[in-house]
Amino acid sequence: MFEKKEIAPSTTKKELQKANGDIFLEIRRMSDNSFIATNWIGLQSLETVMMGSTQILTMLRERPCKGFLHGNHELIGPWEIAVNWLVQKWMPQAKAGGIRYYAYVQGPGIYGQRSFDAFYELVKNEFEVKVFTEEEDAKEWLQEKSL
Description:
The protein is of the alpha/beta class. The protein has helices at residues 46-62, 83-96, 110-123, 135-146; strands at 10-17, 23-30, 35-42, 67-75, 101-105, 128-132.
């Protein structure tokens, strides 16, 4: 039938922490450079979103890639406060860093989904965006797009 394609393992992993030591973001670059994946953890503020997103841009400047996986399966609460900054500042730089495909893995709560809906309306014409409930499906889609 169908063979399951093996997903490239990540080789670069960064963890960002809040002042109290709590990890708020994990960032991984796949070893084949097909995409960068994030896992946002806990409550986010404008400051944490800006810090994390700036780190992603740094990684893109060091080594551009086409795919981005925005994982929110451990996110708690909204991030709407950062939507304008993401659209006005992060998105143009992410595009310049090669991002063309944006996979969004939904978190468990409605607040994160509402935040994404606001973001999506402003970026849907800038990236090819696809929403997933499972991270593995998002990874497979990004791997296919990188071929």
